[in-house]
Specification:
Blueprint lengths: L5 E5 L6 E9 L4 E4 L4 E9 L1 E5 L2 E4 L5 E4 L5 E5 L5 E8 L9 H6 L2 E2 L2 H14 L5 H20 L10 H14 L7 H8 L3 H12 L3 H18 L4 H7 L5 H12 L3 H6 L16
Antiparallel strand pairs: 1-2, 2-9, 3-8, 4-7, 4-9, 5-6, 5-8, 7-10
Helix pairs in contact: 2-3, 3-6, 4-6, 8-9
Length: 278
């Protein structure tokens, strides 16, 4: 009988991410091995059984597993049906080596919000062009993981957060079409990336990546109605390619850029209609 094992791996251009792995295993068992990166693991179907630091562990229910770097572990299906998992390998810029000990003691975390955020991170990592969104999501995940490992609450927003938020908005507007990363923005503003995301969301009610995308879509509307071809609009406004542009445009406005430009959506001029709720 043919094996149903399947593996997909890639390296996105997201600071802090070494590799992404999506896999389905029914037969394969990992031998003892080590990584020089943090292994952030969620299991979508089935259960993984593994050994870490001479202790038998597992991934029941909706847990999140965080395996520390340079600590040997293995892994195998706990049932005949196997398992399907999604993994992000993170370097020590997100979680430093001082957290290895707590992660060894408690690698499996029961946290529905954290798991939801990791799922959304994977969705962003899977799409070329959504790297800024992935980076924004990852920085909040890092905050929550550090809170678990230090047995404390997530850090509060920094003092002067509203000023930081406005400074960040100015920078995002300046770099709207060229693209940027949170690491670069944080270096300019001398603030931790997680502080930027929290302060911006608190001040404006929207995360930085969503602000950037909504501003690009807003600019695209005018260009499309002025007659610029969708492919040129996508390139000029910093989208990865035209399908990337089309996907985000349709998510915001409920129609494709081409139909919007022709004014054929629902049989009336789209340009005169109220924008869809965001």
């Amino acid at each position: 009988m043919a094996s149903r094992d399947d593996v997909r791996a890639w390296r996105p251009a997201v600071p802090g991410v070494r590799e992404v792995l999506h896999a389905r295993f029914t037969e394969h068992a990992y031998p003892m091995h080590v990584h020089d990166a943090w292994t952030l693991l969620i299991v979508d179907d089935g259960v993984v059984r593994y050994e870490l630091d001479h202790h038998e562990r597992g991934t029941p229910g909706d847990t999140v597993s965080l395996l520390p770097p340079l600590v040997p572990h293995n892994g195998s299906p706990a049932t005949a049906q196997g398992f399907r998992k999604r993994v992000v390998y993170l370097d020590t810029t997100l979680l430093d080596e001082s957290l290895i000990g707590p992660a060894v003691d408690g690698p499996d975390l029961t946290d529905p919000l954290l798991r939801t955020r990791i799922g959304r991170l994977h969705a962003a990592l899977a799409v070329p062009g959504d790297e800024f969104e992935a980076e924004s999501r990852l920085t909040l995940i890092g905050d929550r993981l550090r809170a678990h490992l230090s047995h404390g609450a997530a850090p509060p927003a920094p003092a002067g957060g509203r000023g930081i938020a406005h400074d960040l908005r100015d920078l995002l507007d300046e770099r709207l079409c060229e693209g940027t990363t949170l690491v670069q923005l944080a270096a300019v503003l001398h603030v931790h990336p997680a502080h930027l995301v929290r302060a911006f969301g608190s001040a404006f009610g929207i995360p930085p990546h969503q602000y950037v995308m909504s501003r690009r879509i807003d600019l695209a509307r005018g260009r499309l109605l002025a007659g610029q071809p969708p492919g040129e609009v996508a390139a000029d406004l910093g989208f990865y390619d035209q399908p990337h542009f089309t996907r985000h445009f349709k998510r915001v406005l409920g129609t494709t850029p081409g139909r919007y430009a022709r004014g054929t959506t629902t049989g009336r001029r789209t340009g005169s209609a109220d924008p869809a709720p965001r």
